[in-house]
Amino acid sequence: MKININKRQKTMIKKRVIPGFGISIGITITFLTLIVLIPISSIAIYVSGISLNEFIEIITDKQVVSGYKVSFFCALIAALINAIFGTILAWVLVRYEFIGKRVLDGLIELPFALPTAVAGITLTSLYSDKGWIGSIFAEAGIQIAYTKIGIIIAMIFIGIPFVVRSIQPVLEKMDTQYEEAATMLGANGHRIFFKVILPEIFPAMLTGFGLALARGIGEYGSVVFIAGNMPYKTQIAPLLIMTKLEQFKYADATAIALVMLVASFIILLLINMIQSYVNKITNN
Amino acid sequence: MIKKRFLVMSLTLVFATGVLTACASSKESINDSNTVEITNVSYDPTREFYESYNNEFNTYWKEKTGQEVIVTQSHGGSGKQARSVVEGNEADVVTLALAHDITLIEEAGLINEGWINEFKENSAPYTSTIVFLVRKGNPENIKDWNDLVRDGVEVITPNPKSSGGARWNFLSAWAYADNLYNGDENKIKQFVSKLYKNVIVLDSGARGATTTFVENGQGDVLIGWENEAYLSVKEHPEEFEIISPSISVLAEPSVAVVDEVAEKNNTTEVANEYIKYLYSDKAQRLAGENYYRPSNKTILQEFENVFDLNINMIKIEDFGGWSKANKDFFEDEAIFDQIYSQ
């Protein structure tokens, strides 16, 4: 048995066309350690400077809890909206040919390239009750900027590329023959979408949803401008972190950050689990 | 095989670490006899002033020594800027909004003790105060602090917990109420609390609040720096006007040489001169033209048509200094938090 495994390992190594496992894993580990692991573990180290009681006191503070609620709630709504509209966008970009398609495709990434503060200021001036989109809604009695709706809009803006770019390649690879076959077998459009297309793109939708959600939860730059930042109403958790930093309370700030980090990690993990479950079902 | 792989792996690790360390080489100061470079870490609203001052100083220094001075400016929220200097941003001089921010750098060991007496007027070459910016024609008829607590008046001011400058706004309102109610703390708290109930957007910084009021048209009155208010009026003379309240604060934006950094960069002499020259008549007038109140009384009088010189100005010492004021008002669970948890 032992010999067998060794043999298999050897053949696996020999089989690789491009050598250099050692170098590449070495680079991977160094890179991850310097860029991700050390900074994130330093959060834990900062937090270890305070006692458990203090930690609990900080993270259960009324303002902090309301900050978490605002951040998570708005990010969830924004990610849901993105999952739906991002799918439609990806669909249009993959399935149809039209003038300006390349331009539209390029526009999708813009939210990544734009400094978030610029995005925040622009969105605020458009959606405030004096701005030209906001004024239309204001007439109907709906205020967008300086409310939770404003926060959600900023989060939709920064999250949309994640969903589109996750779904696009899957749709591109998907053979239209499936849909043709389904039509031949008498399925209507509605049924084709839910029984043929959706199961294929659902895992990618989840990925996009998860990324958009995580990004929205941590978003600071664009949201502070449009939020109004009223305590207990529109104050997001990252702003509270900035406020603590402003008071040189590094431990407090990292405590709040740690909770967000853990929560985001759990959410992403759950999404991953659902995804592999869905994959299993569709593959069977 | 495995041994070899580990060897390659660890070598790569060492190599990569080496490369990354090499990248982080220290900042070299250009310090030959013809040019000298200094960095001035300042806060947001001083941008325009220091742009012209640096030109002025360059001319002066060149005449005196024949050297060209290149001043690198950095602007941002005052607290953030102070933190960046503590964390290693190499500033030769700091010109920040609050003495407290410079004290934090002093506590980190970068500035020698007693900096506040190193230069004239508490090391504050120019001062400013807190005023109201209202829409043209003053439709809400706002004259003083008590008009800001009226029902229906919408106020814009940044959050004093995240904005150093906004602490002055809070303290000015407090000083007014203190005078009005003869120090009855409950009544003062009610007054200030009512004022903050009228706040419709609580931005995180002074510039953000200005944008909210000026560009996005929110609120009836903006509480803010006098110099910022003048800049807004200068830019949109048809839209805004300035109202000076009866009581406000004397804000002394402080300046200091960051001794440790200047010594290391060999710029102590030019950095000291850079700050000293801020008190010269030319620089004082320049400050006035940029809507900062010159600390030189004679030159301040030249600007009596610009500034309201009759405001009763409260100093931070009246609140027991910044450390005490922060503890009493802006720490977690202190008075400002109490206002919002009611």
Describe this entry's structure for a reader.
The complex is a heterodimer of chains A (284) and B (342). Chain A is mainly α. Chain A folds into 2 domains: 21-50, no CATH class; 51-283, MetI-like fold (Orthogonal Bundle), CATH 1.10.3720. Chain A is built from 14 helices and no strands. In chain A, α2 packs across α14 (250-283). The longest helix of chain A has 34 residues, at 62-95. The mean pLDDT of chain A is 88. With 342 residues, chain B is an alpha/beta fold. Helix content of chain B is 47%, strand content 15%. In chain B, the strands form 4 sheets. A 5-stranded mixed beta sheet of chain B has the order 7-6-8-5-9. In chain B, α2 links the parallel β1 and β2. The longest helix of chain B has 22 residues, at 2-23.
Taken in chain order, the helices and strands of chain B follow as HEHEHEHHEEEHHEHEHEEEHHHEHEHH
CATH topology of the largest domain in chain B: D-Maltodextrin-Binding Protein, domain 2
Number of DSSP-assigned strands of chain A: 0
CATH topology of the largest domain in chain A: MetI-like fold
- Structural class label of chain B: alpha/beta
Per CATH, which architecture of the largest domain in chain A? Orthogonal Bundle
Shape of chain B: globular
Quick tags:
heterodimer, A: 284 residues, MetI-like fold, 14 helices, 80% helix, 0% strand, B: 342 residues, alpha/beta, D-Maltodextrin-Binding Protein, domain 2, 2 domains, 15 helices
Provide a quick synopsis of the model.
Chain A has helices spanning 2-15, 21-47, 52-59, 62-95, 101-107, 110-113, 116-127, 134-139, 148-173, 176-184, 189-218, 223-227, 237-246, 250-283. With 284 residues, chain A is mainly alpha-helical.
SSE blueprint:
The complex is a heterodimer of chains A (284) and B (342).
Chain A: H1 2-15, H2 21-47, H3 52-59, H4 62-95, H5 101-107, H6 110-113, H7 116-127, H8 134-139, H9 148-173, H10 176-184, H11 189-218, H12 223-227, H13 237-246, H14 250-283
Helix pairs in contact in A: 2-14, 4-9, 4-11, 4-13, 7-9, 9-11, 10-11, 11-14, 13-14
Chain B: H1 2-23, E1 35-42, H2 47-65, E2 68-74, H3 78-86, E3 93-95, H4 99-107, H5 120-123, E4 126-127, E5 130-135, E6 155-156, H6 164-180, H7 185-197, E7 199-201, H8 206-215, E8 221-225, H9 226-235, E9 240-243, E10 247-249, E11 255-257, H10 259-265, H11 268-276, H12 281-289, E12 293-294, H13 297-302, E13 312-314, H14 321-330, H15 335-341
Parallel strand pairs in B: 1-2, 1-3, 6-7, 6-8, 10-13
Antiparallel strand pairs in B: 3-11, 4-12, 5-8, 5-9
